[in-house]
Amino acid sequence: MTVFHFRLPALLFGMLLLFAACDKDDIADLDPTNTDDNTPTANQPDNPTPTFTDSDGALVAIQTVSYISQPVVGVIETTIGLAVAAFPDGSGGNNAAGAITCEGESLTQNSNNSYTYMIDANNATGISFSSTVDWTVAGSGSIPAITKSVSGVFPSSLESGTASGSDVSTGSAFTLSTTNPVSDADSLIFAVHGTSSSVLITKEASQNTHTFSAADRGSIGTGVGFVQITAYRIADTETNNGNKYYFINQKVNTISVNFN
User: For residue 196, is it left (φ>0), alpha (ψ between -120 and 50) or beta?
Assistant: First the structure.
């Protein structure tokens, strides 16, 4: 298994971090673009999405999550719904697939023929996923028309003990983990994203922790960066004319930290 990536526009990623803020006074601290002290800042990270050796395309429903602790009720998970799709052409690019919708929302076809649904001012929380995730693909060229409803169950419990704004030393081991075991997932991807490079590790879903050694992170650089836990489950597959397409439900928790 390899991993490919869909990049969230910087404006969107800034909005995601703002939604995670408990208080408007905290926004400046959480926004990685707010670097009045000229601290080096990593580019916002991709959403890592798995692909498989027998895959001819992936349609991925995504929940980006943040966790807010509230008195009495405890920790609340807030979600923003996104969707991406891509049909690799075998030469580093993607095949066009015609119009694509997820839960009735149209995805935008990008210049590289990947497809994305992003939030905007009219829908700040994105796609609201139901008990089933409904996909349609109009089809184009070698990509067939597809209409598919898959399970709407997403991985759960991605809260991490690493808090936003934490200081993380690049000279010592760093453990990234979820507070509780992750359920309804096939695999987890642990990642650290620095100003110079990133390190990603994929593990079985039962292993909800990973320790990055100092050697692992020696080249990622210092400054404002990100740690990220991604959980995904294969909701279904479909085979058409010998080509196999994966439908994936994914949850991503991305946390801004200071690497020093």
Answer: alpha
What integer pLDDT is reported at residue 151 of this predicted model? 97
| Contacts of residue 83, Cβ cutoff 8 Å, sequence gap at least 6 | 59, 60, 61, 62, 102, 103, 105, 107, 115, 116, 117, 127
CA atoms of 121 and 109, how far apart (whole Å): 20
First and final CA of the chain: distance in angstroms?
Answer: 32
Output 71 or 181, whichever has higher pLDDT: 181
Rounded to 5°, angle at Cα 8 from 136 and 189: 90
C-alpha angle 152-155-159 in degrees, rounded to nearest 5: 135
Helix (H/G/I), strand (E/B), else coil: 159: coil
Is residue 186 within 8 A of residue 234, CB to CB? The reply is: yes
Residue spans per domain, the chain: 2-259
CA–chain centroid gap for 96, Å, is 23
Cα distances from 232 to residues 18, 89, 217, 250, 252, in angstroms, run: 24, 23, 24, 4, 9
**DSSP code for 183:** B
Strand partners, 92: none
Q: Which two tokens stand for residue 1?
A: 């298994």
pLDDT in the model for residue 160 = 94
Burial of 73 (0-12, 13-18, 19+ CB in 10 A): exposed
